[in-house]
Amino acid sequence: MKKIVADHILIKTENPAEDNFIIYLKSENDIPEIFPGNFAEILVPDSPEVFLRRPFSILDVDYKKRIISFYIKAIGKGTSRLGALKSGTKINLIYPLGNRYSIENNLTKVLIVGGGSGIAPFILLGKELKKRDIRATFLIGGRSKKDILMTEEFSKYGEVLMTTEDGTAGEKGLVTQHTVFKTGKFNFDKIYCCGPNPMMKAVGILAREKGIPCEASLENTMACGFGVCLCCVTATHQGNKRVCLEGPVFNVNDLTW
Ligand SMILES: Cc1cc2nc3c(=O)[nH]c(=O)nc-3n(C[C@H](O)[C@H](O)[C@H](O)COP(=O)(O)OP(=O)(O)OC[C@H]3O[C@@H](n4cnc5c(N)ncnc54)[C@H](O)[C@@H]3O)c2cc1C
Ligand code: FES
């Protein structure tokens, strides 16, 4: 897969909720082909204290306009700084990195489960599934209504279900308590998930019990982003794997968690 290391210009920042940002970056050159699950390593500009690049899933791409976008949830120095940058700022990116969600030819109906910043890879995934006529159900979980973002965008690619822990949107409870997992409704060809590890683990257990293949995209802390520093490894039944290179997408049955 062709990778680029290049400055991009920040053309717009949206702020859909407190501490949540979507940044749109314009490339001078053609954008290489990007697949659902790929990520970029972003160098946070003018921030010597954030000297390591930060990894972010690629939210969307417009090849014609050469615009690539990212969803950023501000949780620390790097993410807060990225959300506060002014339009016109140069931002250096390395991408596309990592593997991708696999979309087998026999799929007709899939479930996509996301929480927190884990919703980011699902716009590209939704687009690709729609292109292939695969019916997608998105299940988005959060603590409260304000954590449930981008549902309008997801609804372009499939049905959207929600859970919130306080019951302010969708069904009350954790994503794994949603009625979609109850017998009868839980009949998908595949499950894709991304979000906090406990959530993915719980989804993986339900998938395994029902014999449904399930892929999870891990968000381990990273440094280099391309397989050299070994700081991102995760244990699998085939030994330790680098999440940045052999992942971030793994078959949940391969993970030892
Ligand atoms: C493949 C991949 C894709 C990702 N995609 C997205 C995305 O699309 N949108 C998004 O908002 N975030 C995404 N993340 C997470 C994002 O990279 C981290 O939130 C970011 O690096 C934190 O940087 P910071 O400087 O703001 O935080 P720091 O100041 O470095 O840390 C703040 C706090 O957050 C914790 N932390 C740092 N990194 C992570 C992490 N990866 N997971 C959990 N806790 C962490 C630290 O331990 C610390 O407690 C992704 C991570 C990976 C590996
Ligand atoms: S982040 Fe360096 S090996 Fe994965």
* Proportion of residues in helical segments: 10-25%
Basic shape: globular
Q: How does the major sheet shape up? A: 7 strands, antiparallel
Name of the CATH homologous superfamily of the largest domain: Nucleotide-binding domain of ferredoxin-NADP reductase (FNR) module
Bound molecules: flavin-adenine dinucleotide, FE2/S2 (inorganic) cluster
Order of strands across the biggest sheet? 4-3-7-1-2-6-5
> What is the top-level CATH class of the largest domain?
Alpha Beta
Number of domains: 2
CATH architecture label of the largest domain: 3-Layer(aba) Sandwich
Return residue spans where pLDDT drops below 50 for at least 5 consecutive residues. none
Gyration radius, rounded: 18 Å
Task: Kindly report the oligomeric state of this protein.
Answer: single chain
Q: Would you count the extended β strands for me?
A: 16
What is the mean pLDDT? 96
Structure classification: mainly beta
Count of alpha/pi helices = 4
List the secondary-structure elements in sequence, H or E. Answer: EEEEEEHEEHEHEEEHEEEE
At the third CATH level, what is the topology name of the largest domain?
Answer: Rossmann fold
How large a portion of the residues is in β-strands, by DSSP E? Answer: 35-45%
Ends distance: 29 Å
